[in-house]
Amino acid sequence: MAIKYENNFPAVEKLIDSNVERALIASSELVRSQAKTNVTAAGRVDTGKLHDDINYKLVKDSGYSGGMASQVGSPDEHAIYNEFGTGEFAENGAGRKGGWFYRAADGTPHFTKGLKPIKFMRNAFRDTKQEVQNIYQQELGKGIK
Known about the structure:
two-stranded antiparallel sheet, alpha+beta, 4 strands
């Protein structure tokens, strides 16, 4: 009697990587969409730049683990101020007190006490957590018998 050994590990590994990537893309799209909705709902759409710059990027680890991750956010320089607030409204009381004057790009002077945080990214992650978990449960086992 002959025993035949067949190594399917490379094919299974490729299938799992594909499933993980599909789950990352679907969940990242979901979080990105919710973050954009949060920015719009907060009325922070003067120029639309913050809203339009929210995106995601898949990051593949070329090291031993070969893992994948997704980074969801905005490279807009004002994103962090919208997320955490500024001045008297900054989280943890870390902002400048008493207000200040500044000039807009057109030279118009303005007085402000800061910007209230809208937590558009954190709330997007929290609001979509269950749906993201469902995506991973559906996608990760596909094609594996």
